[in-house]
Design brief:
- The complex is a heterodimer of chains A (309) and B (249).
- Chain A is built from eight helices and 16 strands.
- The radius of gyration of chain A is 21 Å and the shape is globular.
- Chain A is α/β, with parallel strands linked by helices.
- Chain B is α/β, with parallel strands linked by helices and 249 residues long.
- Chain B has helices spanning 37-51, 68-78, 94-108, 127-135, 188-194, 235-244, and strands at residues 2-6, 9-11, 33-35, 57-64, 82-87, 112-116, 139-149, 152-159, 162-169, 172-176, 199-202, 215-221, 230-232.
- A nine-stranded mixed sheet of chain B has the order 9-8-7-10-6-1-4-5-11, sandwiched between helices. In chain B, strands 2-3 form a two-stranded antiparallel sheet.
- In chain B, strand 4, helix 2 and strand 5 (82-87) form a beta-alpha-beta unit.
- Classes of the chains: A alpha/beta (309), B alpha/beta (249).
- Chains A and B meet through helix 3, helix 4, strand 5, strand 7 and strand 8 of A and helix 3, helix 4, strand 7, strand 8 and strand 9 of B.
- Strand 16 of chain A pairs parallel with strand 13 (230-232) of chain B.
- The complex binds flavin-adenine dinucleotide and adenosine monophosphate.
- Residues 6-8, 36, 38-39, 42, 61-64, 92, 94, 97, 115-116, 118-119, 122, 124-128 of chain B line the site of adenosine monophosphate (AMP).
Chain lengths: 309, 249
């Protein structure tokens, strides 16, 4: 089988999310990596070095600068004449583009796969991960999004694939990029952090969240996450949200502080290797999944913990 | 302009789903069902646009069993003007739902189609994008804020790194994220009024859509279970554990 994967990148370098997709695609067949961008030589060069990638297609066009789905989907759909499967990471970019490609190809997408069970058979989570479905596609071509935490990352170096330029499909003229608000942070990204400290509604407000959660995260070199309640209340920006409808994470250690453990939150972190919970309610559902629980008031316990590390 | 909103009847988000012992699916017998939470946000946004005078009529569409009528009545009670139930007892996959919505859009010519970003049962996150592709129209997915300006809509999107703003020519498709708005509750008088609002009943065949599934579900199983671990007495014990695990030295 010939697969085409979407390379997530910032034109200069390749984002980590791509590496798990290479691993998933390699289970199906040969892997061609598509780098669609504007001034994306750097990303194409980096993609060519990923172990397991046999070819890189570079579509360098101003229309692809911001990965607008209206422009990118026709490009991918056109290229799919030569491929059997298209895979993207389950990032917001992947989730934006893949279904648009699937519909253009008249294919039912397989979302957020956890494993490859056969050439057309996959497992995927449904009902916030409370059930795992094994599904078999009957479509001639496959369109798949890949859950990053479910597959090992391919080595970012060691490969030497040829890079081939492909012509773009141009601008659809229906959408344009206006701007973005991307917070720059020195902190590890949530989806690749080894340790995550997450705060919930109990953190009261943005200042308190900063004062209580951040020093602990700094001590541990951890990424910082949050529950939906903390995001909705404006303690932290939306991209901190962990859960069914936020980011799916699986770090070595996940520390949930003042988070009750609603199923929607658990859906995003219950595959973490070790879960630690601090909550004043000893019956909080979070303790049902926590390896280590500490019952008490986070406003005394967390500063004490930070101090003792 | 008209707004088309898509609403799906799903398991209530407060209910913990149970996998059926025979591995064929999730047990929905006697389980509380509600409107998909993201779709409530979609309905609310359409109502706010109508209150602003941007939208003139709101049409709520659901593809599902007879009981999906209840979901549509909820949308009507919130403030939608009329409803279309596309009756199908078996689950309909996102691709087929998208084809039905596309066909309805061809008939109704809405300026905006608003769907949820994902249904909390199948967690597919596909329908809105697919409708956009089938109509050849732009999409503003995971919307955090939308503003209609003349013949375009500006959509602020929730993305992995933060927020991104795109401008789309109308007609356009928008999918809702959690922070777009807080849906209202239907008031009792509005619930009563909703009973008299029109609800058309159709079938996928009326729109020429074949709903035969493309994905065959071979099995539905339990996820790996986590067992509750230990509780430690105090911070010192937690620090000791962290050292033991090598998290800190
Ligand atoms: C469609 C939909 C999607 C959703 N998606 C997500 C998602 O992706 N991610 C997500 O997280 N949620 C999601 N939710 C929301 C979810 O259902 C819960 O409402 C949310 O996770 C609760 O956040 P919380 O645990 O911070 O708040 P709460 O449930 O209010 O819990 C606060 C906890 O803090 C504890 N506490 C309070 N004070 C202290 C103190 N001083 N010391 C120690 N502990 C204290 C309390 O005992 C309690 O357990 C979603 C909901 C819906 C409907
Ligand atoms: N059967 C359905 N009837 C009406 N709308 C639906 C249906 N299925 C999905 N949708 C809409 O599409 C959105 C995304 O669903 P999904 O792609 O299944 O995750 C939902 O939030 C709904 O707005």
């Amino acid at each position: 089988m010939n697969t085409l994967i979407w390379v997530e990148h910032d034109n200069a370098s390749v984002k980590d999310a791509t590496l798990a997709v290479v691993t998933a695609a390699a289970k199906l067949g040969s892997v061609t990596a598509l780098v669609a961008g504007s001034g994306c030589d750097g990303a194409a060069t980096a993609a060519a070095q990923i172990e397991g990638v046999s070819k890189v297609l570079k579509a360098d066009d101003a229309a692809y600068a911001n990965a607008l789905a209206e422009n990118v989907a026709p490009l991918v759909a056109g290229l799919m004449a030569n491929y059997d499967a298209f895979l993207t990471p389950s990032t917001t970019t992947g989730k934006n583009i893949a279904p648009r490609v699937a519909a253009l190809l008249d294919v039912m997408q397989v979302s957020d796969i956890l494993s490859v069970e056969g050439p057309k058979t996959f497992t995927r989570p449904i009902y916030a991960g409370n059930a795992i479905a094994t599904v078999e596609s009957s479509d001639a071509k496959l369109v798949i999004t890949v859950r990053g935490t479910a597959f090992a990352k391919a080595n970012a170096t060691g490969g030497s694939a040829p890079v081939e330029a492909v012509a773009g499909a141009g601008d659809s003229g229906t959408s344009s990029f206006v701007g973005s608000e991307i917070a720059k942070s020195e902190r590890p990204e949530l989806t690749s952090a080894k340790i995550i400290v997450s705060g919930g509604r109990a953190l009261k407000d943005a200042d308190t969240f900063q004062q209580v959660i951040i020093p602990l995260a700094d001590k541990l070199g951890a990424g910082v996450g949050a529950s939906r309640a903390a995001v909705d209340a404006g303690y932290v920006p939306n991209d901190y949200q962990v859960g069914q409808t936020g980011k799916i994470v699986a770090p070595e250690v996940y520390i949930a502080i003042g988070i009750s453990g609603a199923i929607q939150h658990l859906a995003g972190m219950k595959d973490s290797k070790t879960i630690i919970a601090i909550n004043k309610d000893e019956d909080a559902p979070i303790f049902q999944v926590a390896d280590i629980g500490l019952v008490g008031d986070l406003f005394t316990l967390v500063p004490e913990l930070t101090g003792k590390l | 302009m008209k707004a088309l909103v898509c609403v799906k009847r799903v398991i209530d988000y407060n209910v913990k789903p149970r996998v059926k012992a025979d591995g064929t699916g999730v047990d929905l017998a006697n389980v509380k069902m509600s409107m998909n939470p993201f779709d409530e946000i979609a309905v609310e946004e359409a109502i706010r646009l109508k209150e602003k005078g941007v939208v003139t009529e709101i049409i709520a569409v659901s593809v599902g069993p007879q009981k999906a009528q209840e979901t549509l009545r909820t949308a009507l009670a919130m403030g939608a003007d009329r409803a279309i139930l596309v009756l199908n007892d078996d689950d309909v996959e996102p691709l087929a739902v998208a084809k039905i919505i596309k066909a309805i859009a061809d008939e109704e010519q809405p300026g905006l189609i608003i769907t949820g970003k994902q249904a909390i049962d199948d967690d597919s996150n596909q329908v809105g994008q697919m409708v956009a592709a089938l109509l050849g129209r732009p999409q503003g997915t995971f919307a955090n804020e939308i503003t209609v300006e003349g013949d375009s809509v500006v959509v602020k999107r929730e993305i992995d790194g933060g927020l991104e703003t795109v401008k789309l020519a109308l007609p356009a498709i928008v999918t809702t994220d959690l922070r777009l708005n807080e849906p209202r509750y239907a008031s009792l008088p509005n619930i009563m009024k909703a009973k008299n609002k029109p609800m058309a009943q159709k079938t996928p065949a009326d729109y020429g859509v074949d709903t035969t599934p493309r994905l065959k579900t071979l099995k539905v199983g339990e996820p790996p279970v986590r067992v509750a671990g230990i509780k430690v007495a105090d911070v010192d014990a937690l620090v000791a554990k962290l050292k033991e695990m090598g998290v800190v030295s």
